[in-house]
Each structure stands twice: as C-alpha cells, then as structure tokens.
Amino acid sequence: MPSEADVKFEIGHVLFIDIVGYSKLLIHEQTEQLQKLREIARATNQFRAAEGEGKLLRLPTGDGGALVFRDNPEAPVGCALEISKALKNYPDMRVRMGIHSGPVREVMDLNEQANIAGAGINMAQRVMDCGDAGHILLSKRVADDLEQYGRWRPLLHDLGICEVKHGATIGIVNLYSDEIGNPQVPEKIKGGEIPREKPSAPIPRKSIAVLPFENLSEDKANAYFADGIQEEILATLSRIGDLKVISRTSTLRFKNAPDSISAIAKQLGVANILEGSVQKAADQVRVNVQLIDAESDSHLWAERYDRKLTDIFAVESDIASNIAEALQARLTGAERRAISSQPTTNTEAHQLYLRGRFCWNKWMGTSMPAPEFDKSRQYYQQAIELDPNYALAYAGLADFYGFAFGFGLLPPEEKWAKAQEDNAKKALELDPTLGEAYNSLACDKLYVHRDWPGAERNFRRGLELSPNFAEMHAHYAMCLVLFGRNEEALAEMRRVLDLDPLSSRFGFTSARLFFFMRQYDAALDQYRKTLELDPGAAFAHEWFGDAYEKKQMQKEAIAEWSKALHLSGVDENASLLERTYAKSGFDAAVHALAQKRLERIKEKTARGEYVPAVEYVTAYMRLGDKEQAFAWLAKAVEERNRLAFEIKANPIFDPLRGDSRFENLLQKVFARQ
Question: Measured on CA atoms in the order 254, 258, 261, 265, is the torsion positive or negative?
Fold first, then answer.
C-alpha cells in the first residue's frame, strides 16, 4: 500500500453541481431532471473540449455531480455559464453550482470503481452548499485568478469571508450578470448562518501603494521629475495583473504627511508601501527606494541608484522587478517585457513628457479648467517632435483630445476627434502593450462612431493589459450604466474605489453613477463623504443639489447650488437664487437661475466661444420652454461627445421623457448597440 507521501495529487479546477430540493422530487422527476442536467452539461463547449483532450474527470453524486478540469481555471466557470444559460429553458429545474481550484486525485472506491478525492472536491462542494437555486459561487482563490482577466471582472461580486463545514472559513464570491446566475445574497449568508465579513476582509498580501517621491534636488523646479519617476514606477507596477496597485491620486494625499506607514496602509487597503526620493543634478540622478511591510514596519527590500539620466528606465524596471519578486507576484512573459521596456532613448523628450504628465495631473486634481490643461498638450507635442517613436507621448495627446472633445471643452469638429483616434492608434502601433491607449480608442469608438460593441472590446482589451488602471474602470462603469447594465457598472466602480480609495474625482463619479441609476440616497451619501475630501469642488456641489432636488429636499438643493455658484465666482447668481427662493419659492428660484445661465451662454456664443448644445437644452428645459429644449436637443445629439450619451440616463432630463421626439432622438444616438 502506498504511503501518503507517495500519493500523487494534481491541481484540479472543480465545478460542483446539484439540484436543489432533489430529495423532495418524485422518483421519476429525479430521474428526468438528472438526465436533463447531464445532457446540458455534456452539451457545453467546455465539457466537450476537455473530454476530447482527455483533461476531464467526472464524479457523479446522487443529486448532481462534479466536473474536474485539469489545466484551465477558466474552464469550469465557462461551463457554469453555459449551463446557467441553458437552464433558462427549464424553469422547473433548480440548480446551484460551486467552483474551486485545489488538489485532487483519482482513487478506487470500495466497489473498485474509479473515483475522485481530495481537498479540491471537498471545498468546491462546500462553496456550492453556501448557495441557493441559480447561484454560481466561487471560492476567493478562483475569483482572484479570474480577476486577472477583464472579461470576468464585472461578473464577480464579493460576499465576504464565510464559515463553512467544520468551522473552516472561505472567501465566497458570487458570479452573475443580467443574463446568468443569481444576484441575490444566499439565504445562508443573509440569515447569519454564514456571516458576511466583507468590511474586515483580509488585505491582499500582493498589494502596494507607491507614495509620492521626495524631491531632494537643489532646484525645486525639478519637482516634476520626482513626481514623474514615482508615477512611471507606479504605472509599470500597474501592468502586473497579480498585484493590487493603488492609484496616484490616493497616494498623493500622503505627500509630506506625518502619518505612520501602518496608518497610511490601512487607509489605502494595502499590505506594502514603497517610499522613495529623487535627486537630479545636470545629467545625474540618484534614486533611493525602500519597500516596507506595513504590518511589521520592516524593510522587505531597499536600494540606492546613482545613474545617468539615460539609465532612468533601467532603474525603474529594476525597481519594479525587485518589488514583484519581493511580493512573490506571478509575471507573464508579456508583463516581463512590458516592465523592462525603454519608452524613449531621448532624455530631453522624456523630461518633456514628464512635464506634460505633471501639468495634466495638476489640472485633473482641480475642480475647474486651468492653464495646465493645454500646457500638457504642448509638452507632449514637443516630446514627439524630439522622438517621433515615443508611444507614451502619443497616448498623452490622445488623452488630451479625448477628454477635451468628450466633455465639450473643444468644439465638435472632426479634426479633434481624428486627433484623438490617430494619436491612440499611433501609440499602440509603437507599443501594443500600452493598455491606457485603449481608453482613448474606446472613447472614439463610442462617442464619435457610436459603436458600443467596438468600444467595449477596447475597454476589455485595455483592462487586460492594465488591470490596475482606475481611470478606465471608471469610464467603463459610466458607459455600462448608459446601456442599462447597472450591476456590471457597480462592480467596475467598486474596483475603481478599491484602486483609488481617496480620490475625490472618482468618489464624485461614483455618486454620479448612483444618480444616473436613480439611487438617490446612495448618491447623497457618496456626495457627502467625498465632499469631505474635496469641499471646494463646485461641480460636485451642483450635482449634490441635483440629487437633493430629486428627493424633494428643496431647501438643501438651493443651499448646494448656491455653494457651487459661490465657488465658481458667480456670487451675484448665488444671491439671486437665495433671494428668489426666500421670496417666491423653489420653482421661481430655479427659473431665475436658468434665465441667468441662458443669458451667460448666449453671450459666450455671441463672442464666438463654443458652448455645448446640452447647456442650452438644460437652460430651456428649466425655463419650461420645451420647444426650444427639443430644438437644441436635436443639435446636442449631432455633437459627437459624451454629453449627448448621458442624456439617456441623466434624471435631469426627465421632463422631456415620454415625448416621442425624445425617444426618436435617443434612437439616433444609440442605434448601434
């Protein structure tokens, strides 16, 4: 008899299935449902492919069975999706599924029949046992593997750490979409038998925040360089799918902060912190870095680099590689190539690019447009003139044109849309691994060409290449809600706030998403929390007021709109709003403010300045002039920008809904779904 040490286990990817309420069925019903379940399972592409390659093991049970896929962690999930879709044709069959990856082995049972045993089988069954009919539940281990792929991420919904059989605990994740699975919280969890502990879920060990690097250069104007090195290291780490990497806007809050490392890590939800400093003089640079385990406050790795500017990319690559090794992160071949790449050999072009990023980040961190916005474009263009093969600079230009065109900061002229598309395509032609450039391509596909399937393909490809890119997750979330895919949108936004938990911009975006979904209480709560981080955001106070209006909280709406006007420097309009409300009530105040805004945008148009047509729609709608509102709405849908798309979901435009003109105009925008 072989000893335990001689028994050979392999990692199996297990799908456990059973029929809920099987024992209560009549004998012939049991037989019929089992037979039908077998037929459905055997008809799936995943089953047939794995069986054909000899990479499938089957374990029948009285009320279902287990399928063990031998070499692909996605196979049991794909099989479960196919089964779930097929079961829609059989509403009387109540089936649940559980998936786990773990050790399994083939054995002979007491009847000398081939069987399967091992912890992988046992745990998959325990995961399944947590669910109700329709559920596809995953262990956290499987979910972590799927997180690396953009196509799975929107379907994953964490249920927390749960207690299963024999007092053991396991992380449970619910897999569902509008088409498959069961979105409800399982009764065992809801009822307390398996406690949900999501808020206290353990922080991933392979998680890191890169704090702003200290600028030790004598020339304090070199701050852009220290910021740029930190951001490039962060961007390089963000390409590693096995790491959770916090975005720069959240870490920026700890620049020169006295907080302890453990306190910072706790606020950011990470286990590790990278600190560093940069000292630049002429063509020489010194970079000091140290990787710290936040819980123990111990150094995992530290290094000092004294190099020439021409070697800076080699320094950044070495830092990223050492961090990945220290955190035992798995690297694909593509990720290894990406983190060792040298974007440019021209040091002057590199510094111009870093200046461009510095100006872009400075603008994106403010509440209103600033001169830095166009400066970023100028620096990117200068970098390209010095190095026409600098992919990141082209990606920067694509970002600039995409944002400016999409949000109506540039007029709806074809040349601006083409500039965005051309620069994004050029960036990817030079560096096909540059996930960020796909965000601009998605923007072009959706807002310019109105091709949602094409846009979604670009979103997903970009997120596969740059899974930690919070900006693209946020953009994708807002697009998903426009197409009614609310659960997926919320999943993407949860990912955003996980990657950038202290970003006021994404906090406001999250509130905006709730507003579009008409979850006004959630929107109000998110606005309150985020305004604590950034009380000076005028646009956020305006949106906050919009949410109060929808809740019929008129006094609060007036107060927030007034704050927005004061912060925007339009004190006279704020006074007008407050006086009219006090004297004549809410409707009169809204009317008075709309009249002032209409006068202002007409003056801008008369001066030859571009005003998005949506602003006219809003003003006339607030004035109760539906004919003019619809006339301008027709112009708005012709303007190929993001604002035209948001009309569909934005509750502000509810007074126009129900009119056939509104629906006909929307159809023009959303014709290619």
Answer: negative
